[in-house]
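Title: Prediction job returns without error message
Component: structure pipeline
Severity: low
Priority: P3
Assignee: unassigned

Description:
Job completed but the reporter wants confirmation the result is attached to the right record. Sequence as submitted:
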Amino acid sequence: MADRSAAEVARAVNARETSAVETLEAAYARIAERDGAIGAYLALTQDLARARAERVDAAVREGKRLPLAGVPLAVKDNMCLEGTPTTCASKILDGWIAPYTATAVQRLIDAGAVPLGKTNLDEFAMGSSCENSALGKTANPWDRSRVPGGSSGGSVAAVAAGEATLALGSDTGGSIREPAAFCGVVGFKPTYGRVSRYGLIAFASSLDQIGPIAQTVEDAALAYDLMAGKDPLDATTVDREVEPAAAGLRDDLRGVRVGIVKEFGLDKLEPDVRACYEQAYDDLRKLGAEFVEVGLPTADYGVATYYLIAPAECSSNLARFDGMRYGLRVEGPDVGATYEATRAAGFGDEVKRRILIGTYALSSGYYDAYYVRAQKARTLIAADFAKAFEACDVIACPAAASPAFAFNAKADPVSMYLMDYYTIPMSLAGLPSLSVPCGYVTPAGSDKPLPLGLELSAPLFAERALLGIAHAYERGTGHARAKQIPTLADAVSAR
């Protein structure tokens, strides 16, 4: 059961070929076997999971059919799950227990999913490698000397290693798509406002979006259909009918216009990476797609724009973590000293860096020069995408410029920020976007093939079309759900 897709697990449990409890036990056995070497989880929620699995089995015996019956679910630890620790992988939330459950998480649980535990991430979702966690290290299941990507590294590694069937991540500038590419799974960011952010601890409120991480596009579509829709607890959710994506999956790309962005030329990539993406484009053509060149003249401003807007919102959102109401508290001689001591001890280097950048960008005398100009650039980026989509149905490009890199290989912050070059523009425009496995490369000095992901993006609210196209590509190439991760046997023996 641990190797089945979510759709397969739900069918088996609903048909009473197995039970949710048996599926849960298989999942925890897999975690016990592998996670000592992978480090995907920060905490397991075994009592809660057992109770939920028993409720699913009782419902099935009563004749109810649940869309995610018994599906083992991993939850990124910046989403609230009632009665469990929620840390954002930060010392500053030490000891805090969530008093409620995030809407997106609850909707999957109500559909029969069973929450296994909370997964590791870059602290407060700020990072592209999962190296910024204050609470532990997560390794890439394909090569434990390399990062899983970030910030949703724990959730992605859990699915890639077979330690969860389905997972939830959050994507602000690429935090679902980039790690999905690094670990060879499907990672999907819906349109901003399509899935409720209630219960997601905010990093950058105008960019954050919850999305599914799965073995297959079908599973991602199934989870999306259950999560999407208006939530009265989140004013940013859009009151617009959700077109069921799982019912719109397709097997070919005849009649589909694929946009290739001329500014995203592959000539800057390493030869083997370039060859992999060229093959991915060729596979799209073989499946019937028509290629159209489109322009995104402001795309090169994406990273600079993002690293003004996101830190500015971060500096505001994280002001609430001051040691007064919850989490870590380091006493000082007065209130101001307590604030300073708590935040100095509780936040890691990258979080502090972004708070400082954001505070500077919002400060008197610099607000117009930096933050306002960044918002204008964001508007231009969104307008460029709107124009591009007049000529095409989806845009295809790399999800990452390289396979997973070694730990500590991107110590310079700027080199790390540039890892999100291909994913940030879509986030700034609020577009639905995903990464689907597209092949493998063997980096220089390594004998281990590592996965890469093809990024596909669509116009606002075109999730059904996007997931249908991704499904056709997945079925036509067979890259998804690779059964043999070379280092898993090594990971187990290393424990």
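Comment from assignee: result matches the submitted record. The longest helix spans residues 367-388.
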